[in-house]
Structures are given as structure tokens and as C-alpha cells.
Write a structure and sequence with these properties.
This is DHA1 family inner membrane transport protein. Its main location: membrane. It is found in: Cell membrane. With 402 residues, this protein is mainly α. It is built from 16 helices and no strands. The chain folds into 2 domains: 183 residues, Growth Hormone, Chain: A, CATH 1.20.1250; 208 residues, MFS general substrate transporter like domains (Growth Hormone, Chain: A), CATH 1.20.1250.20.
């Protein structure tokens, strides 16, 4: 494994920690600033919006410099945002710090995916992407619980200061270990935007929104579901989230391993399995041991889709993958926001705390149908000619030097 992948994984670990740790610290933050917990929840919403907007913005800005330099800039921005959050004198400044940090999120994973894929042989690209995303999954096993514990024991500001320190480590690691890959010849905004004229890129992103949305429809409301339905104590929820993180870790590795061999079959299996498990969750949520096993499976099947979907976007975007890759990271967060809203809607309608699981199953099923449609179109195009960027009048593909 190239050591450069380790540097990317460290950056991913820091980003994953700051994204999710705030959920466990909302009561402390709300108390310190004298705001309600729903108001403090804007720290989660603001971060998600920042990811969706920052992914294309920062990636477009980064097309003018080499990828290693841009990754360093992004880690610097991430560090600055978390330091601002740690020192924020008011809630507004705290929210601004969260948004600043989130601007780096989508572009880091998008550009990092391209860099990771370029560091290895063609038959190992999905595995390299999975290695980088391992940092994100490990963050949910180690970083988030540890950050929550530190925040509750010492103060939430110490948690964000620690995450800022992780950003410095990631920045130095990238500077030292990631090779100075030149900016690809011919890289410019028009070429990057042309990738979105390929229907396969759009379908892959739609699969990302729906598939990952299926995961977070259930997980967003895991605390009330487990305490009110399964009968777990509030203190046990942290352990269940660690279990979810372990599932994410295992699924990510599994997805990376098999996506390099049979990408589309891996998507069929993971999305189909996710739909079935989420549907069963409406029943297993009533049993403590079965609920725990289901949470592990939701994490594993959900994250087994990440490397193949990210590689699918890279493959279909051809010579201009950077913006498409970053936008696909934004699609993950768009799925999170969509699922959280839909899950809250069915709960508010009085359908119960297990109702979001049905929403998740429906979303995962829709993603599976799109995967089948994507494969069918691809088979057709082999016989009738490619439908996408070139046939739509975009620039022809040219060899790209890395």
C-alpha cells in the first residue's frame, strides 16, 4: 500500500470525526451558548449544506493547481474551520466555523479519490479508494466516541481543538507522502462540466443519493428507535453507533475488494441486501440482540456501496473525473439530508419510530432499480455506440497524462 494512501486516510479520519462528533455534543454546545437543542442542530444542517455547496466550488477552484497542493489547501481550510469552532465566542461564529470546515469535505474526498486511484494499478483502484475511506469509517469507531467522551469530560472546545490538530497532521502527511501529481493536461472547467452530460454519471450519483439515503433514513433516528422500541438505555446508544461504525469499516473494505473484480454485481448485492435488511429492521427493532445485528448489517451493506459508486463515477467521467468525483461526495450528504427529512416526516405522521426503516428500504430499492437500468443502458450502448459526453457534443476524450 502506498504510504500516500495513509496520509489521505488520516485526513479522512479527521473529516469523519468532525462531521459526526457534533451530534453527541449538541446538549453541551446548546447549554454553553444558551440556545435550544434544535437551534444547535443547525450545526449539523449547516455542515451538510456546506459539503454540498463546497464540493463543486472548491473543486472548480482546484482545477488550476496540482492535486497535492489542492489537498493541502483543503486540509488547511478544514483545520482553520475547526480551530474557529473551538475558539468561537458566539453560536454564530461556531456555525461559521462548521461551514468553513465543511467546504473542504466534498472536494477532499473527491480529489482524494482521483489521487488514490492514480497511485495504484488499474485493477486496484476501488481498493485504493476504499483505503482512503477507511479513515472515515474508523472515525465512527474511534474518533467519534473518543471525541464525545473528551467533550463531555473536558469540554466540547477541547474536542474541536483536537480535530484541528488532526488536520495539521493530515496536512503534513499529504505534503510529505503524496507525490506532486501534475495537473492533467487539458483540465479546465468546460471539460469537467462535460462529464455531467453522460447519463451514466448522473445515474451513478442518483444511486448514491438513494442508496446512502436508505442508510441514514434509519440511522438518523436510531436513538429514539432503540430506546423506545428495542428497550435499550440511552447510554447503550453510543455502543450501538460504534457497532454501526464497525459495520461501515467492514463493508467499505468488502466493497473495495469486490468492486475491482465485479463492480455492478457488487452494487446489486449490496443495494439489494440493504433494502431487505432495512425492511426487516421494522421487525428486528423490537429485539435487543436482533436490533444490534441489524445495525451492524446496515452499516456494512450501506458502506459496501461507497467504493463501487465512487469508482463508477470515476470510470464514467473518463478524462475529467475530479468535479464529478467531488459532486458524488456531495450526493452522499444530499442523501443524508433527504433521508433525515423523509424519516422525520413519517414519524411526525404518527407511523412510529420504525417507520423510517420502510423509507430506507424504499430508497435502497429505488437505487437498485437505477443500477439495473444503468447496466441495461450500458449493454445497449455497446451495440449502438456510446451515449454521453461525446455524443452530446462535448469535447472528445484525449489521453490524459498524470
Amino acid at each position: 500500500m502506498p504510504l500516500a494512501l495513509l496520509a489521505l486516510a488520516i485526513g479522512a479520519f479527521g473529516i469523519g470525526t468532525t462531521e459526526f462528533v457534533v451530534m453527541g455534543l449538541l446538549p453541551q454546545i446548546a447549554g454553553d451558548y444558551g440556545v435550544s437543542i434544535p437551534t444547535a442542530g443547525l450545526l449539523v444542517t449547516g455542515y451538510a449544506i456546506g459539503v454540498v455547496l463546497g464540493a463543486p466550488l472548491m473543486t472548480v477552484l482546484g482545477t488550476r493547481i496540482n492535486r497535492r497542493t489542492m489537498l493541502m489547501v483543503l486540509m488547511g481550510l478544514f483545520t482553520l474551520g475547526n480551530l474557529l469552532s473551538a475558539l468561537a465566542p458566539s453560536f454564530g461564529v461556531m456555525l461559521a466555523g462548521r461551514i468553513v470546515a465543511s467546504l473542504a469535505h466534498g472536494a477532499f474526498f473527491g480529489i482524494g479519490s482521483v489521487v488514490a486511484a492514480d497511485l495504484v494499478a488499474p485493477n486496484k483502484k476501488a481498493g485504493a479508494i476504499a483505503t482512503m475511506f477507511t479513515g472515515l469509517t474508523v472515525a465512527n469507531i474511534v474518533g467519534v466516541p473518543l471525541g464525545t467522551y473528551i467533550g463531555q469530560a473536558v469540554g466540547w472546545r477541547a474536542t474541536f481543538a483536537g480535530v484541528a490538530a488532526l488536520g495539521v497532521v493530515g496536512l503534513l502527511g499529504i505534503a510529505k507522502l503524496v507525490p506532486a501529481l501534475p495537473r492533467p493536461a487539458g483540465t479546465r472547467l468546460r471539460r469537467e462540466l462535460a462529464a455531467f452530460r453522460n447519463v451514466q454519471v448522473i445515474l451513478a450519483m442518483a444511486m448514491t443519493v438513494l442508496g446512502f439515503g436508505g442508510v441514514f433514513a434509519a440511522i438518523t433516528y436510531i436513538a429514539p428507535m432503540m430506546t423506545h422500541v428495542a428497550g435499550y438505555s440511552e447510554g447503550a446508544v453510543t455502543g450501538l453507533l460504534v457497532l454501526f461504525g464497525i459495520g461501515m469499516f467492514l463493508g467499505n473494505l468488502l466493497g473495495g475488494r469486490f468492486a475491482d473484480r465485479r463492480l455492478m454485481p457488487m452494487l446489486y448485492a449490496s443495494l439489494g441486501g440493504l433494502a431487505v435488511v432495512l425492511a426487516l429492521f421494522t421487525v428486528t427493532a423490537h429485539s435487543k440482540p436482533l436490533a444490534a445485528v441489524t445495525i451492524l448489517l446496515v452499516g456494512a451493506l450501506g458502506f459496501a456501496t461507497v467504493p463501487p459508486l465512487q469508482k463508477r463515477v470515476l470510470d464514467q467521467a473518463h478524462g475529467a473525473p475530479t468535479l464529478a468525483s467531488a459532486m458524488n461526495i456531495g450526493a452522499f450528504n444530499l442523501g443524508n439530508a433527504l433521508a433525515a427529512w423523509l424519516g422525520g416526516t413519517v414519524i411526525s405522521a404518527g407511523l412510529g419510530y420504525t417507520a423510517p426503516n420502510w423509507v430506507g428500504a424504499a430508497l435502497a430499492t429505488a437505487a437498485l432499480l437505477l443500477a439495473l437500468l444503468s447496466a441495461a443502458l450500458e449493454r445497449r450502448d455497446r451495440h449502438t455506440g456510446p451515449v454521453g459526453a461525446e455524443s452530446a457534443g462535448a469535447e472528445p476524450r484525449v489521453p490524459v497524462r498524470h
